[in-house]
Each structure stands twice: as C-alpha cells, then as structure tokens.
Prior knowledge:
The chain has three domains: 2-79, Arc Repressor Mutant, subunit A; 86-159 and 265-291, Periplasmic binding protein-like II (D-Maltodextrin-Binding Protein, domain 2), CATH 3.40.190.10; 161-262, 3-Layer(aba) Sandwich (D-Maltodextrin-Binding Protein, domain 2). The protein is built from ten helices and 14 strands. By secondary structure, the protein is an alpha/beta fold. Strands 4-3-5-14-6 form a five-stranded mixed sheet. Strands 11-8-12-7-13 form a five-stranded mixed sheet. Strands 1-2 form a two-stranded antiparallel ribbon. It is rod-shaped and about 105 Å long. Helix 1 packs across helix 2 and helix 2 crosses helix 3.
Amino acid sequence: MESFVRVVRSGSFTIAANQLGLSRALVSRHVGSLETRLGVRLLNRSTRSLNLTEEGRAYLEFCENVFRDIEHHERVITHTKSEPTGTLKLAAPKSFGSLMLGDAIVAFAAAQPKLTVSLMLEDVSFRRPSDFVERGLDMALRISALHNSSLTERPIIDCDWVVCASPDYLARAGRPAKPAELARHACLIHSNVTPNDRIWRFEGGSGPISVKVDGAFFSNSALALRKAALAGIGIALIPGYAVAEDLASGALVSVLPRFKTAPRPLLAVYPRSKAVPQKIELFVEFLREWFAGQKLIRQ
C-alpha cells in the first residue's frame, strides 16, 4: 500500500523506490500484487506517464486514510509513554488497602489526572496470568511471593510482622517466654501467606527458630485476625500496620519481643511481558517513594 501511495504521489516507480529504499522492480511488484488481489487496475502505465484509474483514485483515498489513522495512534502511544492515559486497574489485600493504601492512591490519581485509577480490595491469590485477564486487572499488590515465571514480582517495601495478644488472653493462658511455648497456645493464623502458614519463624540470639503452632482461628484478612486478637481468642502473627494503634494503646501487647520475625515484602505483581506498560512503571515507582519513609512497623 505504501509503495502504491509513493508511486502515485511521486509520479515515478524509480523515485518511489529511492524514497522507500527498495528496488524499482520490488515496488513495481508491490503495485502489481495489489492489483491482482483487488482484481482491478489501479494505474494506467505508459513510458511517459502514470494515471490513476477510477478504482485507483478510490483506493488511494482509502490508503491515505489508513496511514493517517496509523500515524494518529502511534502519536497517542508515544505520548502515553511520557503521560499515561486510560485506566490502571489494580487489586490489593483488604487489610492493607483499607489501612495503608488509600492516601497513596489519592495522591497518585492527583499526580496523573489523565489516568483513571480503579482499586479493588479483595483477598485472592492471583497465581496465574489468566487471573488478571479474567478480572480485567493490570496488576495486584501482595504480601507474599508467588515464584511464578509467567508473572513479574517487584518489591515495594518490607512490612514488619509482630506477635501479639490481648492482656486478657495472656492473663488466662500465660505469657510465652520462648517461641517453642507457642505450640501449647491458641494461635491466630494468617492463611495463604507462606507455603505452611502454621510454621512461625523467629530470629533469636542463637539463630533461626521455627515452631509449629495450632490454630484457634484462620483468616486471609489481617483485619479479621486483629478482631480475633482483641477478643482474646489467641496469639496472632500479624502485619504491624494492622495493629500499630492497638499496640500503642495497650489493647494488644507484644509477645516474645526478644525474638523478631522476618519482615515480608509488599510486592507489585503483573503478567510478564517484554514491554511493561508505562502506567504500571509509574505506579510502582510512586509507591516505592511514597512508602520509603514509613516504617510498617517494628515493635
């Protein structure tokens, strides 16, 4: 099509070939192939001139409209690289999204007025690229790694986890002095975070410590675990951001403060591709800067 347009506009197969960096024979073959496929003659050729047929004139207009449309969309895509438009749809865990993400999302939306941001709070796994397609999502935030080669995982910030309980529970059941004593306590377990959620791991003076706990209550929501801990049901291993105010007020107290649990990363997860959409790149970098000065949270 481009060969045809260049021949018509230049009035010469030779000039068109030079403009395109092709041989004259190849340009002539392009035009001939078009005529064969369309079943009509587009050009009347003579040794001195080239004249459009009626069908050629109509096809020239069609070709130029196509090329204008292509150029327009390429300009839009190029512009989007520096100023993204459209919609960024993401999912985040209910607890983290409710407690920590709202202000960041509002600030990002204000900084990118041509980009519509849609935040879905849902505690789902997002283990396959099809999970994103089925929900129409661009990316998800998670607090546990998936280790799936078809997905990209990029760390945003490390979130500290704390072991805590209500004073009422500890008064009834006793306060554990070392991690091994957790095995005889009712524990509140955050499910779907690690391959074995019932193994709690600590760092002590003599090295790593692992203990298998029994669950009095399981949930994939930190908010639900917080309520269970406040109700005195058991001892929780829970993200620090979910209980920071309760620890400060004394409604919950830290258990085993000499034994620290490993922080867990907040991850941006999206389907792997050769070219990452600019809107995802911008949002990931924005979140990194947003949370860079915040402790999430070590007691």
